[in-house]
Amino acid sequence: MSTETFDYKYFNVTFPAEHVAVVEINRPEKLNAFVEEMWHNLSKIITRLSLSPTIRSILLTGAGRAFTAGLDVQAASQGPTLNTGASANSDPARLALHHKAHILDFQACITSIERCAKPVIVLLHGISYGLAIDISVACDVRLATADARLCIKEVDIGIAADIGTLTRLPKAGVSMSWVKEVALTAREFGAEEALRVGLVSAVLPDKTKGIEAALDICRTIASKSPIATLGTKELINYSRDHTVEEGLNYTAVWNAAMLQTGDVKSALLSGLQRRKPTFEKL
User: Fold this and answer.
1) Residue 117: which of 200, 217, 19 has the closest Cα?
2) Residue extents of the structural domains in the chain
3) Residue scoring higher pLDDT (87 or 193)
4) Is the pLDDT of residue 74 over 90?
5) Which residue spans traverse the membrane (predicted)?
6) Assuming Cys at both sites, which of 114, 127, 232, 282 could form a disulfide with 53, CB separation 3.0 to 4.6 Å?
């Protein structure tokens, strides 16, 4: 288990199993609704875990009865998120530049999950609105509890979702008709519907069972070669956004280097000798 110390407001980071980190959003009294500091702290945590030589998989979940209710609209209305943050007499071009920079900053915080070198498993539970979808579609594996209530909420506050949902959800293997319906209506949908359309890969009866199932996945991933799992995530994400020919070429270039790892020998020998393989830190 890691001995690193993570002290970031609104988050608990624990290490319940070897090479596994759990990142828990911790603002339960506000249903884990995000204020600006939380975006940046989440990004800092994920980036540190991505670079950690001891961590091989990450579980992302929330404290209390909600994963996250999304953006803390009350706090945002008093700060730059839903305000201009610029002089009231600024012209439209200057206001637009300010808004663009602010949006790109928040997008980058969530993109850090997708770019994390380590696989990230998310457990959606309870209220999982707005930003919850942005976060989850940036993760590698999505699980949900039976009580999960999901919603792309942004049209109800007068904006188009701009942090990742409208970009990543259409590439998540779900029906485009369904994506447009839930995004345009902001209707709530449950875990079973999310499973039926392919947004999540499993529904667990409650949060305790959900954490157990998610940690099982994390432990299984952590038992594999970290070179292999890192490469697998990288190549899947690259191929999603490129042609088959480009994906194959990138895979060949990637493995031309990565096949030289000693992990291949360790994995093959452990299979022949019927023992659990051990792999060096990254």
Assistant:
1) 19
2) 11-222, 226-273
3) 193
4) no
5) none
6) 282
Total residue length of the chain: 282
Which run of H or of E encompasses 15? strand 11-17
What are phi and psi for residue 273, nearest 5 degrees?
-95, 0
Task: Give the pairing of strands 11-17 and 20-25.
Answer: antiparallel
Mean pLDDT (the chain, rounded): 92
Q: Is 268 or 54 the better-scoring residue by pLDDT? A: 54
| C-alpha count within 13 angstroms, C-beta hemisphere, residue 175 | 9
pTM of the full structure: 0.92
- Judge whether residue 87 has pLDDT over 60: no
Sign of CA dihedral 185, 172, 237, 221: positive
Fold of domain 11-222? 2-enoyl-CoA Hydratase; Chain A, domain 1 (3.90.226)
Query: Average pLDDT, stretch 59-64?
Result: 98
Average pLDDT over residues 247-259: 95
| Nearest residue to 260 via CA among 228, 237, 232, 233 | 228
Burial class (CB in 10 A: 0-12, 13-18, 19+), 131: buried
CATH architecture of 226-273: Orthogonal Bundle (1.10)
Strand pairing class (149-151; 189-190): antiparallel
DSSP-based three-state secondary structure for 115: helix
Determine phi and psi for 69, rounding to 5 degrees.
-80, 5
Question: What tokens appear for 220 in the block?
Answer: 């299984």
Tokens standing for residue 61: 């979940």
